[in-house]
Amino acid sequence: VSRQLKEEIRRGFARLEDPLAGLLAMLESSSDWKGKGHSLGYCITTELQLWIKEHPAVSQSGTKLKKLQARVLRMLSQCPANLLDPLISIYQLHTADRNYLLEHVSHLYLQGYYKEAAVLSIKLKLQPDQDVEKMCTPLLLQDKANLVEDYVGEYPELQRKLLQTLDTWCDPSFNIRDITRPYQGLYRYKPEKFNRRALSKLVFRLLERFSVDPALCPNVINQRHLRTLNYLFYKRFVEKTMTEENWADHIQSTVGENRWLQGHLVQALLRHCGARGAARWARRCRVPPEMLPRAVAEELQQLHIQDRVEEVTKADNYEDSKKKDYYQLPIPRENIHFLQTWEETLQCWEKVLQPGQVVGIDMEWKPSFGMVGKPRVALLQLALKDEVFLLDLPRLLEQAEAEGEKEKLPRFIQMLYSDAAITKLGYGMSGDLSSLAAACSALKDTEKQMQGVVDLLAVDKQVDGLSPDHSHKERGVRQPEKGLSLLVQHVLGKSLDKTEQLSNWEKRPLREEQILYAASDAYCLLEIYERLCKDPESFGLGSDLTESLVGEQSKKPRAKKQLNKQEAPSPSGQECQGPRTEPSHPTAPISPREFSVVCDNMLQGLGRYLRCLGVDVWLLDNEDDHRKAAEIARQEGRVILTSGLPYQTLRSQVGEGRCFSVNCSEKAKEQALQVLKHFNVQVSLSDIFSRCQ
């Protein structure tokens, strides 16, 4: 607002006998203030609010103020949000009779102005005298969960009442239509957003936001545990990717002594294991005998210890036979150290914090299976060339706090991550560091201070094929790998055994299988990095791999986050610039109409841009294999435009200079300029949009 307008407004106030009544008269006779944004009415109102502070004698009281308050209350339901606070302040509505305010809000509610009633209640702090279920139900039906959160935000008792109400609605025997029936004609009613799944998600969000004990919501918690139970049965008996011990740990911690869940467990065991298997597991999970079906109870009576030992041994032998197909740690078992004391940890620090050191870092935590709270790191793995250290984080943090030195561990971790002279290798470090901060709040800014970090997740996005020594047929032997396991398979020839991935990493002592898995997850990063640095070109990466990854990140503390978003320079380095496609002699200029290309599916933006300039472009579909580009190029005499590892494969299948590697970190316009310059394509005004788009 201009100074001149402000001065004019203030002069107007000074001339009025009753500025408060004058403002109301203006607002009542004008519709300008009802729009969004900073209207003239808004400017006048906020100036009056400031002016009153400078001229307190102007404020009203007694009967006169009550009359003004009654007038302004009628106006507030139509009022834009930015005028509420100034008007409440000017007319001192917080001092008004509370019963009168509650009656006014109730009147708004009965007229169907549910949002307006809730907003005004929040502004006037009326919630403790209202029925939280009554106020919030229509808001939830209108998908206004954020307003509901604000409504109970400052009142723990109301938060608990709301959560108990929502949990009641999530009971499988509860008929949700009983709630929705009175609101059938509700404006902006969204019944598709009002179901048990949506309500369950809201409950978990509120439990976490308000730090309420989940035991307050047994229905929602039981349903989430039941989904976890079904998921665990799928992992063990359908997908077959979870060991028996690991599975048993999670089943026991999920079901516990909950009778309802024990009943579902027995039914699932009968479906997947038969009566005998169900009896064996029922005994192991301490299911009360009276809960067992007759057939299972009879089997339980006949079950002997020896039977159980033989079955477990048989299963373990089967699983051991599969181990040899997976990546194996190349260091002896005695070189894996599980650290639970500060004396051991200090010796580890001395070895890790050495200039020039290369360290593989990984972290493990107990799967949350969608329960409340962020997962907290339970194990920190640090791999060096000859040994691996497994740090028992909860134990070390507990000891440090008992000794009054709780900054000891955060200090070491921050020194490690911020030292540019030490190369840190990880895979998807953002998630790891988020869980690390949940375990130790002093580490929440570690990501901002990182230097000398290589996130192999960024390299994985470039290594888009198998190791040179392994065929596609070999990959099809097992279920398709993903993530780090797939990268290990591509680069080292064998994938990681991920059967312990979903272990309970907080349970002590760790099983031997867990220790070997944790050590392998960190150590394989060293082997991948060493292999890629020795022979980057075999994997479609540039010869300056080390410099492009470590060098760039060492200069920019936030480079890790950039890598995850694929904003950092491509690990392919110079490869992306296409140096190998340089012709041995200059080519004559050609027009876009004479230039035909086939674009790989990761370059669709480039393809569309070139088509706008008149180039004959064939775009591969997302589901097309890269090799289709070579077939099209040979049949139609097109140039292949690709990037990363596919360049290595495709350039050998077409003539020299007929395959070009584009810098994948550039935008489509820069990529197009690069292509046009390389092939000496001259674009004229008549070429632009000369082809059908």
Automatic annotation (TrEMBL):
The keyword Hydrolase applies. Residues 550-591 are annotated as: Disordered. InterPro entries: 3'-5'_exonuclease_dom (IPR002562), Exonuclease_MUT-7-like (IPR052408), Mut-7_DEDDy_dom (IPR037432), Mut7-C_RNAse_dom (IPR002782), RNaseH-like_sf (IPR012337), RNaseH_sf (IPR036397). Residues 565-575 have a biased composition (Polar residues). Coiled coil: none annotated. Gene3D superfamilies: Ribonuclease H-like superfamily/Ribonuclease H (3.30.420.10). One of its GO terms (biological process) is nucleobase-containing compound metabolic process. Residues 336-537 form the 3'-5' exonuclease domain. Keywords: Exonuclease, Hydrolase, Nuclease. The keyword Transferase does not apply. GO terms for molecular function: 3'-5' exonuclease activity; nucleic acid binding. It holds the Pfam family DNA_pol_A_exo1. This is MUT7 Exonuclease. It comes from Oriolus oriolus. The gene is Exd3.
